[in-house]
Every structure is written in structure tokens, then in C-alpha cells.
Design goal:
alpha/beta, 7 helices, about 25% helix, 14 strands
Length: about 210
């Protein structure tokens, strides 16, 4: 399994295409906002002859949904998120105005809802859903044990963690998520966060700022 990260939109969010050698692919947190960013995603998918099965969101803050409508409509695929994220998604258009994202096209609502420990299968590609609230009420991460990788959204960053001062955020809940659900993964797991560089579970267990709380 491979991960191609595209850092895009004015908030510099890491969107991902997760794919395998058979060409099965899913899009997670599409960061494409400008037309040239949208084209970059399409070019990569075409050049690698990928079959896009779905668009997934770790959560629905505005920076993670800027490309939802474009890619869901372009590929005609399901959009999946946790049901609790309907609360977060309801703020997206207001947030777009606040951040000056005048060209934001509202995300559709999910066609399918993700659940904790659900195993998603897209052709030969499999990802496990880990429910991880705290940054938002319905935040999830996507984990592949065989490939030692986690698409973690805004739960855990290199040296830091997701903010908790937005609607639905909770420091107490986020700490529980990080210590009980994320730090219990194997230490060699590579974490692809929603912002900033990749890291590993082992490195963050030793050095992350969350250890001071």
C-alpha cells in the first residue's frame, strides 16, 4: 500500500490518495481547492491508472472537505464519514466564509457512515476505522496493520496534536483517544497527519507535547 500526500488549500492541509499495486485507491481528506490543485489530483490518478472507490473524511472541518464535492462528483463515488461529523460539516460553509474561501463548493453529506473498528474493503485495499474524537466529535483515523501506516487526520501531529477549542473539541477526550487508541498501535507505525510531516507512533510516545498534559 502506498500513500501520496497533497498539501493544499490556503490552510495547508495534507490530503491523501491511498492505493495499491492493483490500482485500487481511496481519497482521504481531499485538500484540493484551487483548480490547479484539483488538476494535480486528477493527473496523479490518471498517470497511475488508479480506480477511485470512495472519498473518505477523517473529520469534516473546512480544510479537510474543500475537495469533497469536486472529487465525489468527478468520480461518481460514495462519500464516507462518521455520522457524528454531520455536526462538524454543518459549520463548513460558515467556516469557508470566515477563512475567505469564496470558491468553496459545499460538500455533499455522507452516503455511508463509518463505524469504529469497521474494516473497509476496496478491491484488494483494506483499511480499519479507528474512532478517535477530541479534535472533533466524530473524528476517525484509518489504519493498515500489514502496511504499518495510519492516516490520522488532526488527532496527532509530529510533536503536537489537534486543537480542541473548536465546536465539539475536548482536551480530555482527545487525550483518551491518543493514549488509548493511537499510542497502543505498534511503535513502527508511520503516521500521516492532517498537517505537517509524517512521524511514527514510537517517536511521538517519547517526545510529543501531549505528554505534558
Amino acid at each position: 500500500m502506498k500513500v501520496q500526500v497533497f498539501t493544499g488549500n490556503p490552510i495547508q492541509q495534507n490530503g491523501s490518495i491511498v492505493y495499491n499495486e492493483q490500482g485500487d485507491a481511496v481519497i482521504i481528506d481531499p485538500s484540493c481547492y484551487e483548480r490547479y490543485e484539483q488538476q494535480e489530483w486528477l493527473d496523479f490518478i490518471e498517470e497511475n491508472k488508479l480506480k477511485v472507490h470512495a472519498v473518505l473524511n477523517t473529520h469534516c472541518h473546512i480544510d479537510h472537505v474543500t475537495g469533497n464535492a469536486f472529487l465525489v462528483n468527478h468520480f461518481g463515488v460514495p462519500f464516507m464519514a462518521h455520522k457524528e461529523e454531520l455536526f462538524t460539516l454543518s459549520f463548513a460553509e460558515r467556516s469557508a466564509q470566515m477563512y475567505g474561501l469564496a470558491a468553496y463548493v459545499p460538500s455533499p453529506e455522507p452516503t455511508d457512515y463509518l463505524t469504529d473498528n469497521q474494516v473497509l474493503k476496496f478491491g484488494e485495499l483494506e483499511l480499519k476505522v479507528i474512532f478517535g474524537p477530541g479534535h472533533s466529535v466524530g473524528h476517525v483515523a484509518f489504519y493498515s496493520e500489514p502496511d504499518n501506516l495510519l492516516i490520522g487526520g488532526d488527532i496527532l501531529f509530529k510533536g503536537s496534536f489537534g486543537r480542541v477549542d473548536l465546536p465539539g473539541g475536548s482536551m480530555e477526550v482527545l487525550k483518551k483517544t491518543i493514549f488509548d487508541r493511537i499510542f497502543t498501535l505498534p511503535e513502527n507505525t508511520v503516521v500521516y497527519p492532517g498537517h505537517g510531516p509524517t512521524t511514527t507512533i514510537g517517536e511521538e510516545k517519547r517526545t510529543n507535547y501531549i505528554l505534558q498534559f
